[in-house]
Each structure stands twice: as structure tokens, then as C-alpha cells.
Amino acid sequence: MKVLIIKTSSLGDIIHALAVIDYLHQVSPGIEIDWVAEEQFLPVLEHNPGLRRIFPVRTKKWRKAPFSAETRSDLMALRKGLRERSYDLVFDIQGNLKSGLIAWLCGSRERVGFSWQVLQEKVNALFTTRRIPFRDSDQNVTDRYLRVVSVPFNRDYQGMELAGAVYSAPEDEAAAERYRAELPEGLVVLFQVGTTWSTKLWYPEGWSELARRIVAQYPGATILINWGSPDEKAFGEQIAREVGAAVRLLPWLRIRELIPVLRRVDLVIGGDTGPLYLAAAVGTPTVSFYRATSAATYAPKGRQHRAVQAAMECTGCYRTSCDRDGECRSSISVDALFAAITDLERIRK
Q: What is the Cα–Cα distance from 14 to 141, expressed in whole angstroms?
């Protein structure tokens, strides 16, 4: 059987969807699985032994120049490659216009996706032939992807042990190992201070105070700060000035370079963002916090993960901006995050 998964973005959502690969191989031994993803997120998928082929897409570039020769050539090549595979099932677990069009390009008769009620872009329903509703028990976003994929196989994903692993190239693993060897022997904690929405961020004073408490509680600890923009780098430098030499900024890392580093730290702390979920996927414990989004929907599951939801009556609002942004940030206390850290450290020891 040949199956195509269409999950093009974002980084965190692709990571949440990785468990469908394990599910499909368990329920259908010998299955061939292909995946369509945005080009920048290929490092999350490209070394996965459960995938036969990955089709990269560049939808942002195509939208900017929809009638250019390059766009037409890319789309023709994509259509040709997808149709040559003759898929038995296509799963659209992106659920928007662009993923619907990609599903249509396949030419497959069986195209499975989300029910109309849960689609943010309702037009997607025009491109699927079977639309799967969620159940009340499908709380986490990974559960929802698994619900869509599991129905055609008539085997519920619940009760199954499913992994969503991320793999790296040997040269990237070796580079991360060399970097780790240069750090002190003590606890290594990574702060993921940035994310895409301002309503997912924490307040600066909280990060500095949390760093101080970690250093005081765990002598010899090192705090690494991951950054992806000049503003995030400046923020990390501010924390380092306020806390001291125990805080180090990572060099700027591409996704493929960050993955093996996350594998080698003891704990990652951050909000609702892709690197936090990468850490969980490679088996590193996490402490995460949620403001505009929901921990019940997105937080990593398992005994080595802890999550804190903002103490606001409007938490989980999914707004990208808010007049009460400062109040919401400070409703996540340093005490709550530090308690989660110490709890995980008791388990780890």
C-alpha cells in the first residue's frame, strides 16, 4: 500500500504529526509512506527511516509569483512526481486551501481529511473525499492527526504505544557532541525564549529570575539560550549580563544543527514553539508554558514533561495580540515553572 501524508507546516505541527508514521507501519506492515512538507522543515523528516519519499514545496514563493516560469515548472514537477506514485490513500492533515490543492494534484481517488466543522479554511473540504470528525477524547493535536489517519484502517490509535521520533545526519550529531564536550559537567538547561506570536512569550524578568534559581539550586549548571533573530539574541545577552557566566548563548543554528544539540541537553524550557517540540521528539524532558494556546492541545505528553497554563480566565484565546498581554505573561509565575523543573529533576535522578 502507498500512502501520502500532506502536512506542510509549521515546524511544531509537523513534529506533532510524526506519530502517524509509527501508527501506519504498525497497522500495515510493508506500507510505503511519502510526505509533502515546506522546504524549510525538511530536516525534521529527511532522515526518518519510516518514510519512502519526501516532496518539498515552496508555497510562499509560489504565491508571490504564481505565473512565473519557475512556479509553473515546480508545480508540474510536483504533480508528475505525485501521480507517478499512484497512492492508495492520501491524508490531508494540514486542512487549508494549499494542502487541498496538493491533494487534488495527486489524482488519487481516496483523499481523507478533517471534517468541515473543524476546518479553519472551509474550502479544503472541496478537495477531500472523506472527512473524519474528532471525538471528545481527541484532546491533543497529535490525537487529532491520528484520528484522521486511523479511521480508514479500522483500528483506534488509543492504547497503542506510538513514537514520533526525529533523526539527524551523522555529521550533525558529531558537531553537537563536540559542542557538548566543551560544556561543564553539571545540569544543562536550554531556554527557548522566542516564538512567533507575542501572545506566546514570557516576560523578561521571569527568564532572568528562573535562571538565577536554577544556578542556585544546581551548582555547576549551564543555561543555554537558543535564538533565531537579532531581538532574541539581544534578549539572551541581557539574561547573560544579569545572571552571569552560567548563561551562554548558542551560536545561530539551523534546524538540522539544533536537533542533535537538543538531544544532548538535560532539560528544555519554553512556550508553544517548534524547538520545544523538537526537544520532546528527541527524548529530552521539557517544561512548557501556554498563554494564548492550550496545554491540553499542544503540550508534550509523558512523565518527563510538565506544562503550565496561564492563570487567566481568557487563557487559550488563540489571539495573536491582546491589550492584557503583560498581565497574561506575568500570570505564569517563576514559582510554577521552577517547581516543575525540580519535580522533573527528582524523577531524572
A: 11
Cβ-in-10-Å burial (0-12, 13-18, 19+) of 102 comes to buried
Q: Which residue, chain included where needed, has cell 481523507?
A: 112
Of 291, 312, 318, 316, which is closest to residue 203 (Cα–Cα)? 291
pLDDT exceeds 70 at position 104: yes
User: For the segment 85-100, what is each residue's pLDDT rounded down to a tens digit?
Assistant: 999 999 999 999 999 9
Query: In the structure, what pLDDT confidence band is assigned to residue 268 with cuts at 50, 70 and 90?
Result: very high
Tell me the residue type at 277: Y
pTM of the model: 0.94
* % pLDDT > 90, the chain: 97
Question: Which CB contacts under 8 angstroms, 24+ apart, belong to 308-315?
Answer: 308/332, 308/336, 308/337, 308/340, 315/290, 315/291
CA separation for the pair 342, 214 (Å, rounded): 9
Give Rg (Cα) of the chain: 21
Neighbouring-strand partners of residue 112: 91, 130
At 187, which amino acid appears?
Answer: L
347 pLDDT exceeds 80?
Answer: no
Question: Residues of the chain with pLDDT > 70: what percent?
Answer: 100
CA angle 31, 274, 158 (to 5 degrees): 45
